[in-house]
Amino acid sequence: MTDKTQYLVRQEPYYQVQGQEVALYEAAYHARLPVMVKGPTGCGKSRFIEYMAWKLGRPLITVACNEDMTASDLVGRYLLDANGTRWLDGPLTTAARIGAICYLDEIVEARQDTTVVIHPLTDHRRTLPLDKKGELVEAHADFQLVISYNPGYQSLMKDLKQSTKQRFTAFDFDYPEATLEAQIVARETGIEQSVAAQLVKVAQAARNLKGHGLDEGVSTRLIVYAATLIGNGVAPRDACRMAMVRPITDDADIRATLDHAIDATFDANPA
Amino acid sequence: MPTGIRPVTDARQRQMAHPQVQAWWQALDCGFAPVADVFEECLDEALSSFSRAQMEAYIEAARFIGKLGRGPEPLLAFLEEWPAVAAAASGDQEPLLPQVMGAIRAMQKSPNSAAITPFLQTLAAVAKRLQSAEQIELYIDIALNLMVRTSASIHGHHTTFPSPGLPAFLEQAPRLLGLLSTAGLRNWTEFGIRNYGSHPERQVEFFSLKSADSHAVLQRERHGTLFADVERSLDLYLRALWRDSDLLVPYSTAFDELRQPVPYFDKLGMRVPDVFDDAHGPAGIVSGLNRYRAVLAHMVGHRRWSTAQIADNWSPFQRMAVEFFEDCRIETLLIREYPGLRRIFLALHPQPRQDACDAETTSCLRHRLAMLSRALLDPGHGYTDPVLLDFVRRFHALLSASESSTAEIAALALAYVAKTRRPSDQLATIHFDDTVIDYRDDNRQLWKFIEEGDEEQAFDAERKLEPGEALRGLPPRRYPEWDDASQTYRPDWVSVYEALHASGNAADIDRLLQKHAALAKHLKRLLDLLKPQDKVRIRYQEEGSDLDLDIALGSLIDFKSGATPDPRINMSHRTDGRDISVLLLLDLSESLNEKVAGAGNASGQTVLELSQEAVSLLAWAIDCLGDPFAIAGFHSNTRHEVRYQHIKGFSERWDDTVKARLAAMSAGWSTRMGAALRHAGHYLAARQADKKILLLLTDGEPADVDVAEPGHLRADARKAVEELSARGVDTFCLSLDPKADDYVRGIFGKRHLVLDRVEQLPERLPLLYMSLTR
Ligand SMILES: Nc1ncnc2c1ncn2[C@@H]1O[C@H](COP(=O)(O)OP(=O)(O)OP(=O)(O)O)[C@@H](O)[C@H]1O
Ligand SMILES: [Mg+2]
Question: Do A132 and B771 touch (CB under 8 A)?
Fold first, then answer.
């Protein structure tokens, strides 16, 4: 039997509560309802789940999905060893057996035929058929399935099937409100609250251009990067350019506008 | 195309299809057959934007031009170009038409009547560049000035010879205005007149841009930051930093040397100068771009925080003081948002010397207020006047805890006027030096006058509404339309007529594709990367998704018997084939005929031409991918006539027949989007495919001539999108309308993209499709 303690979140992750999400998640977990967390990239979805796993004292198994992933990568496969073939559980099967929270990050990245293997786990059956092995795994009473999903993608392909969506309760995440976000950045990186607020200001300027030349705004994660650079002695304006502007655009006009926003925010010499 | 023209010897006897058009044709009293041939089409265009009164003026002017005795050319040019000119000047032909007619009369009276035709021929292109009636008038002044000063000075006696340079100048005008502001154009012209006024040949060389010094002067005049070059940056600036956006309208700075025009904003947009030079002040240089930003930031401040005050009870002095105080209040709030703004404002703000104004002889109120304004913004102002210092303190006290308000700050301003009043304030000589703060707008929005009353007469002049002749061919298909007000459908409300699109020359499309060969090559590489969706098994993999049992057993036996086993015992899956059907629906309404502004489009292409290129490339790309696709266009002329034109059917190949239809693409009429979406959607819904995508390319919001309330067709379009979604069709909208933000999300949800730079359409449309289906 797998050692479930290896999947426990040992230290309390820092998570800044934004509303009622903690209580609501607890209720969903209590009823073992599958959960979907939606929101733009880098807004704290993964952090939230990690925090909840810690709070509930449940093991957490995270799978980062990608388009080359197959059902076997989730469920398991036969391997060959000296004595013949041996079955190896995939992360989803492991989670179902040991009663972990299984977090499928960026589920839309996986192809739809991969996605459907989760269906029997998400309804009243709570089972996982291992067709190749001829076994029907009954999910552990503590098992819960969580998926994350960024609805901002333009691709019509990267959308969940209705039949998949309709199996989950959902949380809508977005970038935190400005003061909260500044608090998060300050707490994560140890930089001053006032500097963090300025970084958030610049990020918001970029977010305003979403749909006007930018596909995505600046994520909380990128703000944290900029703050980390500042913490390491990089000048704020350079840190902003490097961590928040350059990664998101190659468009010269947009770059100039955001550079100006940085100068205006950090009161640097205009030229 | 309207028909019904029967060849009749005298063009005056021609019969026009529509009685109203017939009446206008008679009013025109024109005997030129070529004019009769196109008259209906010209009118069609005019009717789509002119009110009845405007139509009358248009026809009357045309009649005059037709009788100049210069053949059909000038009349043709006028009939064809004028609606576009009026449209460029925001549909406002009233002030412009007399100007243009005046110019024509002046040319006719002088020996320059031959210039009338080129003048009219380039006027629309010029208007497109200048975009305001005022600027177009300036252009006309420049042309007339050139005419007067270069006509017949050769022998020094009475004017008998036409200006050699004028026709060349008129031909070059659109190009010149692409490079110069009207001020620059005037300087360049001035140079040509002064130096070649009496050398006919060299004058022609100069004005047709064939001489070296003509180029050199042109280059020299291109100083400063032209509005046209930074328009997009300014739009981004407003959106990114201020979450604001509006139409930006440039005004000319060069012709009013005494009273420089001042920025302002009103319902129609934000008015800014057409060019800004870098400002060199004691505090350093402020770039032209940053001067524009300062102007916009200031206006944004008013839009956010100012409320209009009733002006009637206050004296001009009091109002002036209120304006200074309020300007400083909003700038303080702006700086609070972006501290870096202070530097820019202060670098542009004058710093009046404390003792510069002699209060015995001059009215010093302006001077006092300008100092105060400086002191309110500049902590290091250095002024010592105790009253000034007291008011600076009170100002900051009001603003320390809150945003204060226009009314509160106005009270402070009145107190200031009362406190500092001097008899000499009434003197006629006013001290102006160092008191003009040129990034501030004229504050017209800060006041309301009770006296004048509400003259908000919506001049929604009746628009043209004669439904065109019924289409021959298939009977119409009727669709319901959603009535948002009553939350019900109006059954069988809209008639959609289907037809095969007319054909042109397929080689034109091949030529367009050829033109974009480099882009096509780039796209090809991306297309190859697009992962298809169905699975194919690949065996003999060391790493794979599944054990391949046959091979594995063989390996195991090898292993047990001591031989080296083959490690490639897994298999994996590759995907193959895509199951996507896509229908590309093109808005073919009138507005597509507009030329695309912007630096990247020097050739002056219309949106239609760009769309044609983009659609050709997209069709080529989808064809490479092998996805079944169809193309159709639509436009409408009231609910009785939505035309839906097939360009390519799902079963047709991407071949010359289809290309020929694409080549003939033309635009006209309005955009009844919901009906077109429903009709296109019913074709898609009938297809077998995993993904059914309706890709809509449009440059504006739903509209039609028989619907006054804009919300109605939007709501209907949204409803149509919902209906399609329920039937498994995903709709995605690519909008070319810079103002689309206001409504496009309401209709399409997140499934839309607003393309800011229309000139990039040929590149972006295929890329968009790829990213949608990746
Ligand atoms: N509420 C929050 N509390 C603490 N940290 C946060 C919070 N929100 C965001 N962060 C910070 O933002 C970073 C990115 O968050 P996270 O990795 O959870 O994003 P995500 O939404 O899962 O992104 P993706 O969709 O790209 O996986 C975290 O590492 C953390 O520093
Ligand atoms: Mg994540």
Answer: no
Angle A57-A63-A69 (CA atoms, 0-180°, nearest 5)? 160
Q: What is the best residue among A9, A17, A46, A180 to mutate for testing ligand 1's pocket, by most ligand atoms within 8 Å of CB?
A: A46
**Shortest Cα distance from B721 to chain A (angstroms)?**
15
| Pair of tokens at residue A111 | 């192809």
What are the sequence ranges of the domains in chain A? Answer: 4-172, 178-265
Whether B40 contacts B21, CB under 8 Å: yes
* Residue A14 CB–ligand 1 contact under 6 Å: yes
Q: Mark yes or no for CB contact B572/A70 under 8 Å.
A: yes
CATH of domain B506-529+579-773: 3.40.50.410
- Rounded Cα distance between B10 and B7, Å, is 9
Topology of domain A4-172, CATH: Rossmann fold (3.40.50)
Verdict on whether the full-model pTM lies above 0.80: no
In tens digits, chain A (271 residues) has pLDDT values of: 678 888 998 899 999 999 999 999 999 999 999 999 999 889 999 999 999 999 999 999 999 988 778 888 899 988 877 777 788 999 999 999 999 999 999 888 887 778 888 989 988 889 999 888 889 999 999 999 999 988 766 666 667 777 788 889 999 999 999 999 999 999 999 999 999 999 999 999 999 998 788 878 899 999 999 999 999 999 999 999 999 999 999 889 999 999 999 999 998 544 3
ipTM value: 0.80
Question: Ligand 2 centre and the CA of A66: distance in Å?
Answer: 13
Residue A73 distance to chain B (closest CA, Å): 7
Contacts of B637 (CB under 8 A, 6+ apart): B467, B468, B643, B669, B670, B704, B705
The B residues from 734 to 753 touching A (CB cutoff 8 Å) are 741, 750-753
Q: Confirm if B221 and B150 have CB atoms less than 8 A apart.
A: no
**A79 Cβ neighbours under 8 A, 6+ residues apart:** A85, A86, A87, A88, B547
State the smallest CA–CA distance between residue A34 and chain B in angstroms. 25
Domain with CATH 3.40.50.410 in chain B: 506-529+579-773
Residue in chain A lying closest to B769 (CA): A155
**Are A154 and B771 a contacting pair at CB < 8 A?**
yes
- Angle in degrees, CA B743, B696, B91, rounded to 5: 55
The number of the ligand 1 atom at minimal distance from the alpha carbon of A50 is: 18
Going from the first residue of chain B to its last (774 residues), give the mean pLDDT of each consecutive group of 10, the final group possibly shorter.
Answer: 51 84 90 88 84 89 91 90 84 80 91 91 87 89 92 59 91 85 90 87 90 77 79 92 88 57 86 86 89 97 94 89 97 96 96 91 93 96 95 96 94 94 86 91 88 38 29 66 84 84 88 84 72 61 75 78 78 68 91 71 75 88 84 91 90 87 89 94 83 89 86 93 89 87 87 83 85 80
**C-beta neighbour count of B653 within 10 angstroms:** 10
Is A268 close to B293, i.e. CB distance below 8 A?
A: no
Side-chain half-sphere exposure of B11, counting CA atoms within 13 A: 15
